[in-house]
Amino acid sequence: MFSLLGPASNIGPRIARRAVIITAMIFSSLAAFLMLCVMCFSVPYTRALYVLYSSQSEGIRFGLWGWCPEGETLCTEKPQLGYTWGTEISNSSATTGLILYPMTSVAVFIFMIASIPSLRSDATKAHKTISKVLATTSFTLSLLAFMIMIAIFGQAKNRFEDAGASAKLGPLPCVSALATLFLGVVCVLTFKVTSSTLESSPDDIRKFNDIESHLTFPPTARRFSKQYGTRKY
């Protein structure tokens, strides 16, 4: 239909692409936020959410804030920001770096709220800049947290195996990788949705509504003309 309508023929598809990108961005950011929240409730809060399992000491699971022995109700006395376990996890400063996970959750939440104005077709340059900065910050924090996790627990896994115990990574590294991937998608889409190629100028919007007003019957046409100032032929 739009191919027959002259200069405004590309407005409809452009608006449709923008809507699809915004929908994907919202879904991806929400998915990443929920995954990061799940990460924050790992061992010792929830036994099923752990980063590393080792058969040492009859089985033990490690999370972001501590550890839990298998077959016992007592885990770490209290969640700890930075902990150690023998020579396998010997640097408490390294595990302190896992605080990046709740920090990333907060950053993503702030992004989801702050990016709402930038999704408008008449968003200001400041709103777009804020969204880009927050999206990039969220992705960077998530990627850094994932790298720290793999560095700590990948090395611990090797040390447990060298000591004769079996060891395997739990579900949380996969959750963290997926959250980082989603945030990477969000970052790309944020730059895409705020780019000039998807923006509709006031003149474009007026042309589009002018077309709509002449493809409908009164009183809809009169409503378009009154609301958007479309031309009357």
List the helices and strands and how they pair.
Blueprint: H1 11-39, E1 52-54, E2 60-62, E3 67-69, H2 92-96, H3 100-114, H4 125-162, E4 167-169, H5 172-193, H6 202-214, H7 220-228
Antiparallel strand pairs: 1-2, 1-4, 2-3
Helix pairs in contact: 1-3, 1-5, 3-4, 4-5, 6-7
Transmembrane segments: 20-45, 99-121, 133-154, 169-191
Keywords: Membrane, Transmembrane, Transmembrane helix
Pfam family, one: SUR7
Strand order of the largest sheet: 3-2-1-4
From the coordinates shown, what is the CATH architecture? Up-down Bundle
Q: What value does the average pLDDT take?
A: 83
- Which outline best applies? elongated
Q: Per DSSP, what share of the residues sits in E-state strands of 2 or more residues?
A: 5-15%
Indicate how many domains the architecture comprises. 1
- Computed CA radius of gyration, to the nearest angstrom: 26 Å
Range of helix content: 55-70%
Question: Major sheet, described briefly?
Answer: 4 strands, antiparallel
Please identify the structural class as seen in this structure. mainly alpha
Task: List low-confidence stretches.
Answer: 1-9
What is the CATH top level name? Mainly Alpha
What's the SSE pattern? HEEEHHHEHHH
CATH topology heading: Butyryl-CoA Dehydrogenase, subunit A, domain 3
The number of helical elements comes to 7
